[in-house]
Amino acid sequence: MFLKDFVCVNEKYIPHTNERYLVSINGVIKDTKDNKELVQCAEVDEEKHFFIEDLLGNQHLLKHSVIMAIVFKCCNLEPHLWDMLDVFYIDDDVNNTHPGNLVWKYPIDGIPYNGLDGFRYIPGYSNYAINKAGFV
């Protein structure tokens, strides 16, 4: 575990949503538009899913654990890439969505970096991309 993985705040906003959704470290997601707790819209393989609307009005169906990782593990990916994200659970418990229990799981081919052909985002370091030759 890295120092950057330690959570210092109890609530943070989901990025790219104009501070519409406030997420607590305990996993509660609040829609600040109507000041109500967001209601789970689906459950797939025992994992809660929620619809999140980004700044452009696009809806994203995301796992609760992925939302927690986006918020508390400082993911700076643009919303159109969120659907490619997933996580591993350190203790194999899908109900334990505390950020300390989550590790990024990128697709086998990685997540393409916009604008640089052959580069992929680095899991856990979404401000950076790397290619097969190791150039960052």
Summarize it:
The chain is mainly beta and 136 residues long. The protein has one helix at residues 64-72; strands at 11-13, 21-24, 29-31, 36-37, 42-44, 47-53, 59-63, 87-89, 102-104, 120-122, 125-130. Strand 10 (120-122) and strand 11 (125-130) form a beta hairpin.
Q: What does it look like?
A:
The protein is mostly beta strands and 136 residues long. Helices cover 7% and strands 31% of the residues. The chain contains one helix and eleven strands. It has one helix at 64-72; strands at 11-13, 21-24, 29-31, 36-37, 42-44, 47-53, 59-63, 87-89, 102-104, 120-122, 125-130. The strands form four sheets. A four-stranded antiparallel beta sheet has the order 1-2-3-4, with helices on one face. Strands 5-6-7 form a three-stranded antiparallel beta sheet. The longest helix is centred in the middle third of the chain and has 9 residues, at 64-72. The protein is globular and about 45 Å long. The two termini are 22 Å apart.
Strand order of the largest sheet: 1-2-3-4
Which of globular, elongated, flat, extended, rod-shaped describes the shape?
A: globular
Order of SSEs, N→C? EEEEEEEHEEEE
Largest sheet: 4 strands, antiparallel
Kindly report the average pLDDT value: 90
Instruction: Determine the strand fraction and express it as a percent band.
Output: 25-35%
DSSP helical segment count: 1
**Percent of residues in helices:** under 10%
Gap from first CA to last CA: 22 Å
Evaluate the radius of gyration: 15 Å
- Spans of at least 5 consecutive residues whose pLDDT stays below 50 are 3-7
Structural class: mainly beta
Number of distinct beta strands: 11
